[in-house]
């Protein structure tokens, strides 16, 4: 009778281990599914511009970081992407800056300032006006990056910098 009892205990232990293994695998599968869904949602909500012509990433005094990428076609912005790790006001400001830049030339983008961004989103609380200023700075830095890269391409296509000598 002792042997039958031991065999039954081993069977119960094996069955319990099997149940534990099944639950562990099920839990791991659910966790993996959540990670995959999060990754897909993240990619859908944070589109990027492949090979941007102008790009900037700036962290403000408040600690928020904003990033803007610009893609130009025929001298105008035709695609933008943006990102921030800040609050909703930061998100709205950087989104507005990127939207305001679409379809504009560099000369028109220079005119986009914090007030333009603030008006575009319908206003900001006084303690979040710096969000629009940071979005302006990020947009202007991305434009500056584009202008510098354009100048580099132009001078390299012309055979490098021209040397001028002045006879004295």
Give structural notes.
With 168 residues, the protein is α+β, with helices and mostly antiparallel strands. It has helices at residues 2-45, 88-101, 106-109, 114-120, 129-157; strands at 54-59, 65-73, 76-84. The protein has a three-stranded antiparallel β-sheet with strand order 1-2-3, with helices on one face. It is elongated, with a radius of gyration of 28 Å.
End-to-end distance? 118 Å
CATH class of the largest domain: Alpha Beta
What share of residues are in beta strands? 5-15%
Overall geometry comes to elongated
Could you give a short description of this structure?
With 168 residues, this protein is of the alpha+beta class. The protein has helices at residues 2-45, 88-101, 106-109, 114-120, 129-157; strands at 54-59, 65-73, 76-84.
Highlighted features:
3 strands; alpha+beta; Sufe protein. Chain: A; 5 helices; 3-stranded antiparallel beta sheet; 168 residues
